[in-house]
């Protein structure tokens, strides 16, 4: 069932988040660490839909902190403390699992996250298979930019020298809006 899978994924991600917190919190200047809230599965035998999930209600501005695909650029992810710490969490998990697993779809209110996903390589990781495409791992590797929190944790940069060289020779244009598509508003003369 999708609902059972959802619980399994979120609670697995939550365990990684706890390990991350245990490593990050003692570091001087790191501060608060994102938390993935628990999700509980309830069985309602008399109901048409016998399984449901229950979790704490998050009140406040709901923000997506991770890139779902390369086309989505989220400045809140890059500019907010929670966003940067989420990116560092992704990097930390990626490094801990030797690039086999990535927590994706990090979203929530402030440092409280919910409805996350996990991407694994096709074969899975330690008997666990994620619910997101492994292309998310490739995208993360290509798009992640280390920040001060990655440095505090001593995470290795994902930018290899080979990538840097390739970047220099690449002539692909960035997907910026075409200036001819931007209509200029000209005030009409009275």
UniProtKB/TrEMBL annotation:
<keyword id="KW-1015">Disulfide bond</keyword>
<feature type="compositionally biased region" description="Polar residues">
    <location>
        <begin position="170"/>
        <end position="181"/>
    </location>
</feature>
<protein>
    <recommendedName>
        <fullName>Alpha-protein kinase 2</fullName>
        <ecNumber>2.7.11.1</ecNumber>
    </recommendedName>
</protein>
<comment type="function">
    <text>Protein kinase that recognizes phosphorylation sites in which the surrounding peptides have an alpha-helical conformation. Regulates cardiac development and cardiomyocyte differentiation by negatively regulating Wnt/beta-catenin signaling.</text>
</comment>
<dbReference type="InterPro" id="IPR004166">
    <property type="entry name" value="a-kinase_dom"/>
</dbReference>
<keyword id="KW-0808">Transferase</keyword>
<keyword id="KW-1003">Cell membrane</keyword>
<keyword id="KW-0723">Serine/threonine-protein kinase</keyword>
<dbReference type="GO" id="GO:0016323">
    <property type="term" value="C:basolateral plasma membrane"/>
</dbReference>
<comment type="similarity">
    <text>Belongs to the protein kinase superfamily. Alpha-type protein kinase family. ALPK subfamily.</text>
</comment>
<keyword id="KW-0418">Kinase</keyword>
<keyword id="KW-0472">Membrane</keyword>
<dbReference type="InterPro" id="IPR011009">
    <property type="entry name" value="Kinase-like_dom_sf"/>
</dbReference>
<dbReference type="Pfam" id="PF02816">
    <property type="entry name" value="Alpha_kinase"/>
</dbReference>
<dbReference type="GO" id="GO:0004674">
    <property type="term" value="F:protein serine/threonine kinase activity"/>
</dbReference>
<keyword id="KW-0393">Immunoglobulin domain</keyword>
<feature type="region of interest" description="Disordered">
    <location>
        <begin position="161"/>
        <end position="190"/>
    </location>
</feature>
<feature type="domain" description="Alpha-type protein kinase">
    <location>
        <begin position="1"/>
        <end position="158"/>
    </location>
</feature>
<dbReference type="GO" id="GO:0005524">
    <property type="term" value="F:ATP binding"/>
</dbReference>
<keyword id="KW-0677">Repeat</keyword>
């Amino acid at each position: 069932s999708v609902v059972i899978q959802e619980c399994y994924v979120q609670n697995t991600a939550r365990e990684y988040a706890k390990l991350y917190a245990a490593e990050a919190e003692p570091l001087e200047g790191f501060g608060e660490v994102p938390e993935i809230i628990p999700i509980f599965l309830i069985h309602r035998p008399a109901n048409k839909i016998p399984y449901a999930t229950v979790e704490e209600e998050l009140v406040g501005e709901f923000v997506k902190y991770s890139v779902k695909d390369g086309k989505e650029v989220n400045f809140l992810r890059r500019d907010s403390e929670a966003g940067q710490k989420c990116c560092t969490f992704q990097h930390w998990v990626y490094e801990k699992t030797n690039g086999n697993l990535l927590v994706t779809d990090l979203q929530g209110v402030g440092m409280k996250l919910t409805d996350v996903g996990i991407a694994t390589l096709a074969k899975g990781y330690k008997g666990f298979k994620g619910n997101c495409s492994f292309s998310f791992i490739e995208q993360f590797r290509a798009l992640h930019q280390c920040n001060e929190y990655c440095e505090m944790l001593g995470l290795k940069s994902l930018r290899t020298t080979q990538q840097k060289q390739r970047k220099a020779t690449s002539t692909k244009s960035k997907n910026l809006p075409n200036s001819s598509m931007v209509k200029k508003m000209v005030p009409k003369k009275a």
